[in-house]
């Protein structure tokens, strides 16, 4: 098989703890090493991040903005591969065949522009990460409530991947994917940031609607070690990627006007606690994982973080969308 060249970009800032596992999982892939173009875009690390990156022989670029999305764009503009994927330093492939699984739909279907990865559970990871990882897109309960469901976009089920067709208002909330770089370049040439969830929406806006859900493209992601870290991440994401130029965003988790009653319903559900506690017990029984005993707290922290972030950084913009 003629394997296409793949560029994987990893933005970093003091990632000495996680980066070795990330890079090892990439270079352990059952994929031709000469077809892997791995770029670390560092943002001023003061630990051993760069020393580790050099040991793996990756390309190193530099970012000075303290903004991971800017780092992704820097890497994208220097990509040599026809296929492109970003990776966070706290991510790792869960199997040696993950890249082949992600590549297969793109090789077999010329009209497919992106191949979606799925998250999986590592029982050794902290309980917050485990709770979120049972969802294939690692969604917080509140984000899952407002998101498009897989069944809404599936048009064909194949043995090892499913074909999805998106529309403007029906886009899966999974931005971790392997996609055709050449199809995206014309539409982000003047942008400073490469915002994850914007990419599928940009494709759809320009007529590229076919994506694949690659069930073998499994990734472990240490998204948060605890509730406080999750809270800070959610607020930071709103401040840096969601709120700036909100009226220009193509992908939105919800519309304040259209989803007003759903928002009220979710807030009642969350802050009365009774039903979330029942859901926690149900998931604990279903998955036999004690992490779910704190699932209601995860939902409480996540929902509160999103409300806080929107009120602080979006201000009255939320009433216009």
Index terms:
321 residues, ten-stranded mixed sheet
What is the fold's blueprint, element by element?
Blueprint: E1 6-12, H1 19-27, E2 36-42, H2 49-55, E3 59-62, H3 68-77, E4 83-86, E5 91-93, H4 98-108, E6 112-119, H5 127-133, H6 141-146, E7 154-157, E8 161-165, E9 177-180, H7 181-188, H8 198-205, E10 210-221, H9 227-242, H10 260-272, H11 274-287, H12 295-314
Parallel strand pairs: 1-2, 1-4, 2-3, 6-10
Antiparallel strand pairs: 4-9, 5-10, 6-9, 7-8, 8-10
Overview of this protein structure:
By secondary structure, the chain is an alpha/beta fold. The protein has a domain at 229-320. The protein contains twelve helices and ten strands. The chain has helices spanning 19-27, 49-55, 68-77, 98-108, 127-133, 141-146, 181-188, 198-205, 227-242, 260-272, 274-287, 295-314; strands at 6-12, 36-42, 59-62, 83-86, 91-93, 112-119, 154-157, 161-165, 177-180, 210-221. Strands 1, 2, 3, 4, 5, 6, 7, 8, 9 and 10 form a ten-stranded mixed sheet that branches. A hairpin with a 3-residue loop joins strand 7 and strand 8. The relative contact order is 0.14. The model has no long low-confidence stretch (mean pLDDT 93).
């Amino acid at each position: 098989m003629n394997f296409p060249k793949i560029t994987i970009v990893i933005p970093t800032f003091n990632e000495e703890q996680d980066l070795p596992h990330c890079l090892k999982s990439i270079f352990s892939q059952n994929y031709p090493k000469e077809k892997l173009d791995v770029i670390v875009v560092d943002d001023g690390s003061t630990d051993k991040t760069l020393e580790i990156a050099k040991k793996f022989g990756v390309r190193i670029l530099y970012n000075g903005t303290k903004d991971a999305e800017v780092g992704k764009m820097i890497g994208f503009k220097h990509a040599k591969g026809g296929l492109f994927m970003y990776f966070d330093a706290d991510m790792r492939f869960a199997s040696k065949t993950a890249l082949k699984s992600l590549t297969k739909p793109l090789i077999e279907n010329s009209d497919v522009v992106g191949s979606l990865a799925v998250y999986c559970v590592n029982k050794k990871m902290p309980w917050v990460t485990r709770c979120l990882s049972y969802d294939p897109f690692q969604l917080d309960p509140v984000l899952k409530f407002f998101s498009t469901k897989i069944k809404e976009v599936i048009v064909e089920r194949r043995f090892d991947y499913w074909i999805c067709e998106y529309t403007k208002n029906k886009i899966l909330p999974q931005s971790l994917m392997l996609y055709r770089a050449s199809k995206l370049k014309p539409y982000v040439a003047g942008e400073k940031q490469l915002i994850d969830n914007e990419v599928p929406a940009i494709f759809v806006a320009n007529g590229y609607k076919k994506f694949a859900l690659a069930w073998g493209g499994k990734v472990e992601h240490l998204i948060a070690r605890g509730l406080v870290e999750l809270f800070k991440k959610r607020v930071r994401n709103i401040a840096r990627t969601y709120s700036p130029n909100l009226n220009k965003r193509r992908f939105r988790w919800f519309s304040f006007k259209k989803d007003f009653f759903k928002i009220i319903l979710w807030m009642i559900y969350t802050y009365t606690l009774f039903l979330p506690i029942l859901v926690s017990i149900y998931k604990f029984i279903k998955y036999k994982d004690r992490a779910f005993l704190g699932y209601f707290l995860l939902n409480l922290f996540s929902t509160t973080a999103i409300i806080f972030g929107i009120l602080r950084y979006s201000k009255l913009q939320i009433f216009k969308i």
